[in-house]
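CORE FACILITY INTAKE
Project code: CF-77B
Contact: R.S. (postdoc)
Sample description: multi-component assembly, two entities in total
Requested service: structural model of the whole complex
Turnaround: standard
Below are the sequence entries exactly as provided by the requester. Do not edit them.
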Amino acid sequence: MSLIVQKFGGSSVADAESIKRVAKRIVATRQAGNDVVVAVSAMGDTTDELLDLAYQVSPLPDPRELDMLMSSGERISVSLLAMAIRSMGHDATSLTGPQAGMRTDSHYGAARIVDVTPTRIRAALDGGSIVIVAGFQGLSADTEDITTLGRGGSDTTAVALAAALDADVCEIYTDVDGIFTSDPRVVPKAQKIDRVTSEEMLELAAHGAKVLYIRAVEFARRHGVTLHVRSSFNNSEGTLVYNPKEGEEVEQPIVTGVATDLSEAKVTVVGVPDVPGKAAQIFTLIAKTEANVDMIVQNVSAAATGLTDISFTLPKSEAQQVLTVLRAEKDAIGFQTLQHDDQIGKLALVGAGMKANTGVSAKLFDALHRASINIEMISTSEIRISVVTRADTVHEAARVIHTAFGLDGTEDAVVHAGTGR
Amino acid sequence: MSLIVQKFGGSSVADAESIKRVAKRIVATRQAGNDVVVAVSAMGDTTDELLDLAYQVSPLPDPRELDMLMSSGERISVSLLAMAIRSMGHDATSLTGPQAGMRTDSHYGAARIVDVTPTRIRAALDGGSIVIVAGFQGLSADTEDITTLGRGGSDTTAVALAAALDADVCEIYTDVDGIFTSDPRVVPKAQKIDRVTSEEMLELAAHGAKVLYIRAVEFARRHGVTLHVRSSFNNSEGTLVYNPKEGEEVEQPIVTGVATDLSEAKVTVVGVPDVPGKAAQIFTLIAKTEANVDMIVQNVSAAATGLTDISFTLPKSEAQQVLTVLRAEKDAIGFQTLQHDDQIGKLALVGAGMKANTGVSAKLFDALHRASINIEMISTSEIRISVVTRADTVHEAARVIHTAFGLDGTEDAVVHAGTGR
C-alpha cells in the first residue's frame, strides 16, 4: 500500500461543487488502494475577504491576530471536504495545522516549519481514515499561538507532510496540466514537460514559472520528496519533479524550459568608488530591508575615473524602500547617482544538461541578436542562463529562444482560464 | 481592581463598524480600571452561512466535522475584535476556546463544559492584556477535538469564564435594555426590571423569556456568578441577575414578571388504564427521544371506567417523534387514542415573593376569568404559576395579568428592532 499526499489549492475548493469534485478525486485515490493525506488551502476568495475585514477594523492589523484570523479559512475548507468524503461513504478526518503536528517558529505571517510530528495523522491513517490537513498553518513552538506560513504555504505544508510521513509521492493539484517548457500564454508552442529535476524546477520557479512555489520545491529537494504536478480538472499525467540519483544527469535534455518575469525592477548605483568593500557595504544596507535581490552585475571600472557602476534586480514593490535606504547613505558610500528602471523583463533558460554542454550561451545570444533584441544584463548558474531585456521585448525573446532550442511543440498548447496560481 | 467578564453576541459584532463600537466599550471598561475578559460569538450571519455550505456538500454532515467548521466563525470575530482594540492603543489577545482552557465532553454540537483551566487567560491578564475568548467552543477532554456548546453557548462560555476566574460580574450584552416584566412587544406597558434573582430568571427563561439562555442562568446560579444584562447599543443600567443570600427574600416583590411562549404543543394520551406504573412507562418511552417535556397534568380518573388522561406540553418540533413512539407502543401501554394540539399558548407568572404569599393563584385565575380566558392546564412551582390557554388568547392573558399584579409602567416600553436573541 502506497501513501500519497495530495494538495489542493483555493481555486480547486472554491465552492461546494468544486469541493465535491475534489472529494471524488481523493476517494478514487483511496479506492485504488492507497493511504491518502490531503493538504488544502482556504476556499477561493476567503483569504482576500478576511484580509479586507482586518483592514476595516485596523489600519495596521497585529500580526499574531492576523494569523488567528487567516487560519480560520482552512478550517472551513478541511471540514467541508471531510464532510463531502464522508457523505460518499469513506472515513475522513480533518485536522488543523496544530493538530497535524506542524510546529513553526513565531514569525507570524511567514512562519518557518521547525518540526512535524504527525502522531494524530498516523493514528487516523491506522484507523482507516483519509486525513484532511489545513494547509498554510502551524503552531508556534515557543508561544503556542497559531501561525501561518505565508506565500506558497499550502504547497509547503503538503511537502513537509510527505517528508515527515515518508510518502511515496506528493501530488500538487493545480489548474494547469503540469509544468510547461514556457508559459503557454507567452509562447503558444510551449509543451508540457513529463519529467523535470527539482534543481531545474527551482531555477524555473525562481525566474517566473508560477505553477510551484520555490519554497515548496526547495523543501522537496532537501528532503528527497518526489512532486507530481497535476490538473485538478482532468486526468492527464502531469509533470513529475524528481530528485535524480548520481550519474542520472547524462540522459537529461540540454534545456528544459524558458521562464519570463515582468515583476522586477533594476536599480543601478552609478559612480561607486572602485575600492574593496563597497559592494559589501551596499548589499549589507539592502539586506536590512529584507529585499529579495536577484541578479547583480558590476561593470569593469573605467581606469581613468576609478569609478564603477553596480546594477541589481529586485521585485518592483521593494525598489522604493531600497532606493530610500541607499539615498540616505549616499555620502557614506560615495556614489554619484541612483537609477531606477521598472521597464525591464527577465528571461531564464534552464536545463540540467547545460552542465555538460558548451555553446548554450552563444546559441542564446545569437538567437536574440538575430531578432534584434538587446541584452542589458547577463547572469548564469550551472544549469541556467538569465538575461534582462526591455520589458516589451521579453516575450518575443522567449518565443525566439524556445524555437532556437527546439522546444516548440507541433501544435499550440491549450491555455486554461485559471489564474495559474 | 475588579475583573469583569463581558459577552457580546453575533448581532453586536455583525460588521466592522459594530466590532469597532464593541471595542470602544471594552476599552472604556479597561480604562475605568478593570481587568477585562470578553467572550464573543461569531459575526452576524456567519453561523447560518457555514451551515448552508455544510448542507451543500453533505446531506447529513458529520458532527465532528460540523464542529470543526462552526468553530471557525468565532476565530474570525475574536481576532478582528483584538485587532480593533489594539488599533485603539490597548493590548489585546484573542484565544480560541481550547486555548482559553475550555474543556468539554465529546457531545459534538451540544458539548457540556467539564473543566475550565484559564492558565493562558491569567497569564495574558497579568501581562496587562485584555483577553478576547472565542465563545461557543471548547476542546474535547477525551478526543482533543474541537467541540461546540450548542444553543446559548457563548453566554455559557462567559459564565463559565466568570466562575473559573472568580470575576466580580459577568456582563451579558444584548440588543435589548435588560430583562422586562414581560415582552414589550406583547405587553406595551412592560417595565425594565432592575434586579431579579437567578431563581426567578431561570423560571422566566424556561417559560419564554428570550434574553438569557436557561443553561447560562443555571450555570451562573450553581457557581454564584452575578449576571448583568445590558444593551450593547446604549449605556442604560440594565438588569442585575443575582444570587440572594439567606433571608434576603423578604424584601422581594411578590411577582417579578410574566412570560409567554407560543412554541409548544400539547399531547394528550387518552384513556390510560389508571394503574400504578403507566405514567412511568409513558415518560420512559418519551425520554428516549430526548424530547423536552415541560408541563405534565394527569386528570383524576373517572371511577366508572378506571381510565385516565395524561397531558403534557413539549416543543412543537419534537411532537411528531413523540407521537410516533407512543403510537408504536399503543397496545403495550393500553391507551385509547392520542390527541395533538399545536394551538396552545403558555403563560408563566414568576416571583420569588410567592413563597411567602398566598392568594397569588386565586388572583391570577380571577383576572383571567374576568377577561373570559379559559385555562386548559395549570402547573406551579414555589415561585411560579403556569397556565396553558388557547394560542390566540395568551397575549391578552399576559396583558391582563400584568395589570392585575401592578406591573404596568406609566408609559409604553421602547421596542428595539433587534431579534431579541
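Facility notes:
- Confidence is low (pLDDT under 50) at residues 417-421 of chain A.
- The interface with chain B takes residues 16, 19-20, 23, 50, 53-54, 56-62, 64-66, 68-69, 71-73, 75-76, 78-84, 86-87, 92-94, 96, 99, 120, 144, 146 of chain A (CB under 8 Å).
Invoice: internal transfer
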